[in-house]
Design brief:
By secondary structure, the protein is α+β, with helices and mostly antiparallel strands. It has one helix at residues 2-21; strands at residues 26-42, 50-55, 64-66, 70-71, 79-91, 99-112.
């Protein structure tokens, strides 16, 4: 009985400890395919004032300005890429903002564009 009480007390302490460490933010991840174009464009929201050109489907005809960083991805001018990317969405507690983080999983293809 004493041993059961000790185990239960330790379990409650760990639960309280881990819940106290949480900042209440909500986080989710998903994987997407992202197509990246062969040139960058001027864009005030991008790193160093430049944005990648991107689209979410190979069938899309219009490129969008993509001002986020894709961690682990090294872009090279003159190539189109198909990327497998993990997107992490986090929303801090009591905030209306959703922050997106992009991380490269795999370069599916890299094609030279003339």
């Amino acid at each position: 009985m004493k041993k059961m009480f000790l185990i239960l007390t330790l379990a409650i302490c760990f639960a309280v400890l881990f819940s106290a460490c949480s900042d209440g933010s909500q986080t989710s991840t998903r994987e997407i395919t992202l197509f990246v174009g062969p040139q960058q464009v001027d864009c005030p929201s991008g790193p160093q004032g430049k944005c990648l050109q991107a689209k979410y489907s190979a069938d899309d005809t219009d490129w969008i300005n993509f001002g986020d960083v894709i961690y682990g991805f090294e872009w090279e001018a003159g190539y189109e890429y198909e990327l497998h990317v993990q997107v992490t969405e986090s929303q801090p507690k009591n905030s209306d903002f959703i922050f997106l983080s992009f991380e490269l999983i795999e370069v599916v293809s890299k094609t030279r564009v003339e």
